[in-house]
Design brief:
The complex is a heterodimer of chains A (201) and B (92).
Chain A (H helix, E strand, L loop, with lengths): L1 H19 L5 H25 L1 H9 L6 H21 L4 H8 L5 H11 L2 H29 L3 H6 L8 H8 L4 H25 L1
Helix pairs in contact in A: 2-6, 4-5, 5-7, 5-10, 6-7, 6-10, 7-9
Chain B lengths: L1 H16 L4 H28 L1 H4 L2 H34 L2
The chains are: A mainly alpha (201), B mainly alpha (92).
Chain lengths: 201, 92
Amino acid sequence: MKDSLVIILFFLAGIGAGIMFDMPDSLEMEKTIDIALYALLLVVGINLGADPGFLEIIRSIRPRIFFIPLATILGTLLGVTVYHILFDYLPFNKSVAVGMGFGYYSLSSVILNQLDGEKLGLIALMANISREVLTLLFAPLFARFTGKLAPVVAGGATSMDTTLPVIIEASGKRFLIHAMIHGVVLSILVPVLVTLAYQLL
Amino acid sequence: MVLVLASFVTGIVAGFLLRRIQWIERISGRLTMVAVVALLFFLGFGVGTNEEIRSHLDILGLHGFLIAVFSLAGSLLTGWIIWKIYYNRYER
């Protein structure tokens, strides 16, 4: 939670700085951002791989448990498709790429900022923060009306950390492992699915 | 795109191989935070300098929110389906 606030503050500070100062040599800046993004993905990967629970989680996986992240991916794809048909605001590949952030707003927004531009980066930021906040707020409601897996799938990639407490609260302790594995699998898939959706659809 | 995926996979493998070194996880967590705030500062900076985006913040925000709502609704539907046909039956 504290981390989220720091992240938002830096984003807002960036907007402030951008309004006050002109863009410095944009080619230089682009290169810097590129390098920072690759560095980010590298350290995110290191952090995942070095996690003491990583091996344990991979080992404890029975095939059946993969249906949950699969459901989240297909459900998100379905929802975004309906959104696209109703509003037709963005090209389909961009809408899907935003959805494939699964609440992992820091990573998805910087990847799409780099692949496409500030506009899509900003939409991804908003969409994925919203997904996390809506899950934090309504997890009990989801659990009540759409089953105990609902808070897990709603949380997306965040079901392993930021939304884990409300998921446990809403669905019960026995969904701890489901939520962890679901979150790890989706976190690993976010960079993959965001770029694939953007490039291939 | 290839570089994005390659950096990420390299990281996972490296992290896994180095997992016995105590400080790797802590340091990589810290560095992640540093890179994230730097990149989001840049994203903010891009938004701040871009007049066109600044004047459409409300619409962009709205569509971000809509994508979140529809993604959630779709996920809740598929989550409910596997809950019904799978988990509900076997885990009770």
